[in-house]
Amino acid sequence: MRRLRWLLAILLAFSLIAAACGDDSDSSTDTAADDTAADDTAADDTAADDTAAADDAMADDAMAEMITGPGVDAENHVIRIGLNADLSGTFAALTTVIVEGQLAFWERVNAEGGIDGWTIEPVVLDNAYDVPTHLENYDKFSGDGDQSVVLLSNSTGSPHTAAIAEALVEDDMMAIPLSWYSGWADPSIGQNVFEVQANYCVEAMNGVTYMSEQHGNKIAIVGFPGDYGEDGALGAKLAAEALGLEIVYDGQAQVIPGADQTPVTTAIAESGADFVWLTTGPTQTAEIVGGAVGAGYTGQWSGNSPSWNPALLGTPLAEVFDASYTHSTYSVLWGIGDSPGMNDLISTMQEYRPDAKADDVYIISWIEGLIAQQTLAQAISNGDISRAGVLAAANEITVDLMGLAPDQNWGGDPNDSVVRGTFLYDVDASLFTPDGLVTDADANRGYTLLEGDYVSPTAEAWQYEPCFKAS
Amino acid sequence: MYKRPNLYTSYEAETQILPTWTQKVLMALFVLSLFLLPFQIPVFNDDIPGLSWLPIIGDGMPLFRFLGDGDWIRSTTTVLMLVVAALGLNLLSGVAGQVSLGHAFFMGVGAVTATYLGAESGSQTWGHSLPIWIWLPGAGIAAALVGMLVSPVAVRLRGLYLAIVTLGLVFVGVHMGNTTWGRKMAGPPALGRKAPKLDIRLWKEETPLIDISHDGHWLWFDVTDNQKRYFMYLIIAIGFTLLAKNIVRSRTGRALQAIRDRDIAAEVMGIAEFRYKVVAFAISSFFAGIAGALFVGLSGQVLATDFGLFLSVEFIAILLIGGAGTTSGALIGTFFVVMIPHFVEEFTVWLGKQESGLTGTFSDAILTSGGDQGIINTSTVTPGWTLSVFDWNIVLFGVLIIAFLIFEPLGLYGVWVRTRNYWKRWPFSY
Predict the structure, then answer these.
(1) B contacts of A163 (beta carbons < 8 Å)
(2) How would you label A242-262 residue by residue, b for 16+ Cβ within 10 Å and e otherwise?
């Protein structure tokens, strides 16, 4: 009986606390208002500091009127940007190179005087390809400490980026995802997620169209389960339907990483397909191509960009890949073409990372960097480099990717802004220089350009909606 | 006779959780400090003259903020969430002696149930948008039911064989997340779906009774959503700690310990082995299910692959490092396993900033950005030797598990008991 009374007392105490919190929504709006007021004063203060500084340094009216916020060190003219990247998880081998490229990009930008006198300081945190860690890092980026930033120029991973998507909207922060999921352009999925280049779905439409024109109309579709694998498979199916292709094997979501791929490879070999569209990873590509060719398949191969890695040319399957693999991707690749972006990339890497190996993923670093740089430049000229100001600037501009990939904008209807052009390459083992450094003039990752920027009729006519629906 | 240590005159007195007043007061202070942890309560807020060379203290010393500020609060909340699961596994493996590597699977069952009950439905996903007082207990109950289904295996198998069977559950679970039904409940593979919000509602009304997911004002304090969630998890964790402690000293707890020590002997004494093994699995899975629901509440994104082998192994590390079979061990172990990697990372970052003096020399000796003799690589490009601090953390856990198994099977709890006993008897060593 006495215990029961204790329990009741505790329950009562909690209900009192609950009652005290009852008018939460009202008071939270109050505090929010107070906060903004406080922020305003803070902004005024920094502005005042600036004016003081401007007396003995250069007198710059624009600086004095600049609206700033967390992520900006107005006193030293530093803007911080964040990279929430996978440095130790599943995709570390890829992401670490992308991050290194972007660091070189900003070193160059800063050495040339920054953006309008503002130095850009990249803050890199490791998400270990783990959602809770990604969120922990995001708390640091979105706070107001010395790791706070105005934008995320790299947010590695689909579930990770999806996990911060709502918070991005609350914090008025933009993020560039390292993920080509077709859902990001949909405001209800990723309003502040600024997808780059074409998505997996469009890529598959273009790739399948090109392959069918070259090699025949019987297609086998094979891929991972999930946003990546099924986005690609669904794009391939859209194209197959539009072109009247015969899907002789539908292996959507049938490739489980780490599992035995024999059922898939047998099905491919027995299907009599003219070509196979893969949406897998390089390891699975090797397993599937090896298995299917072993079982007697003699057709062609292509697939979404992440299915391929030039390292596959170092395997015993090099001859098969050389003869029958077409690589699809979203941009020009290392050393190919004579675009200003490519020249800029190569000369910067040669100057700032002369010991680095030539790598196609540096193009991703550059594209992320260019988007962030041009967004910040617009925000500075707008006089507002707070997070909200940067976000607004990103929605205003069309980013010039200097010939590395189709130019891109984000404001307005996603159907108008979604990128539909991709690039197709023939894999050529004789061109591949596995140890080529950025300083080697003939460094090539084993490609010759077939088509690009290539927009298939299916992709052209496609009314935007996420191909793979998540919710 | 009163106040003489280790002399108990009644069974009740001997089974008290906190037998002495000193312990009661210290525990009360400890719990109070846990509640104050997220707030900035200053001791010294400014630079301390003369001590500025000391890290942390030199920059002004907050009393409670150390683990409670923005950078740390998510980790401390993670500790509170994993404590619930670790307590459950401790009851099963530590108290009842049934080795289980499948704890992550039961957490996954809880997480998916919570999402199914609490999240909104979409064109590709099922959901019922029910309030937290349904989905949180529901997650525990669903996991407990699945645990009861699995438990008959434990009656037929012991030790290593049981471990292998429960290990299989983890793979079954990850695979089930990829089936049509699994996708409807856990969201698409590799992308996942939104977890239910932690807001406390009576039913499906617009304005929640207690708003957890936005910044707000509680009593006299401005609290952020992270702080609110910390308090919520803290109250749940304290509740489950008391529950676990009380189960151990109840009839059930004694029966479980008898089964652990020798199941045949226990049966001869009249303990229904089958029934108590079912009970052990049910209780432990209930704890895991609740923790799974809290897990997705914390991460906001449900992913079936989160509840894989690595999480199960993390629990083994928690039990072995903390000390299997003791409630305190589960608490200390969780804190240690979750926080140590963060401390090591922070320490490395701090060390990287040291350029001169003793710390600078030390920094030069063990850090490298490629090329020189250090063993911890601080550059961003790290695959392969030398290892980055993140890889070293994983190595550290392997080494710690082995070291504790060999040198201190009672874990950190055992270290604490020995230290305490040493000072109790000081200056006499025996």
Answers:
(1) 192, 299-301
(2) bbebebbbbbbbbbbeeeebe
Among residues 163-202 of chain A, which lie with CB inside 8 Å of chain B? 163, 166, 181
Which of A201, A267, A194 is closest to A236 using CA atoms? A201
pTM of the model: 0.83
Chain A residues with CB under 8 Å of B125 CB are 470-471
Selection from B235, B138, B239, B145 nearest residue B185 by Cα = B138
Rounded to two decimals, the ipTM of the complex is 0.80
User: Nearest chain B Cα to A225, which residue?
Assistant: B189
DSSP summary character for residue A67: B
CB-CB under 8 Å, A227 with B306: no
Q: Do A140 and B299 touch (CB under 8 A)?
A: no
Contact predicate B158/B277, CB 8 Å: no
Structure tokens at B410: 């009672």
Rounded mean pLDDT, A288-315: 92
Contact residues on chain B for A96, CB-CB shorter than 8 A: 380-383
Q: Is A260 on the interface with B (CB under 8 A)?
A: no
Digit-coded pLDDT (tens) for A168-187 = 999 999 999 999 999 999 98
SS3 letters across B208-271: CCECCCCCEEECCEEECHHHHHHHHHHHHHHHHHHHHHHHHCCHHHHHHHHHHHCHHHHHHCCC
* C-alpha to C-alpha distance for A282 and A306, rounded to whole angstroms: 7
Is B215 within 8 Å of A31 when comparing Cβ atoms?
Answer: yes
Report the pLDDT averaged over residues A39-62: 43
Residues B187, A471: C-beta atoms closer than 8 Å: yes
Inter-chain CB proximity B190 and A132 less than 8 Å: no
Phi, psi dihedral angles at A386 (to 5 degrees): -70, 170
Contact indicator for B409, A109 with CB cutoff of 8 Å = no
Give the tens place of pLDDT for each residue, A306-362. 999 888 888 889 999 999 999 999 999 998 888 999 999 999 999 999 988 899 999
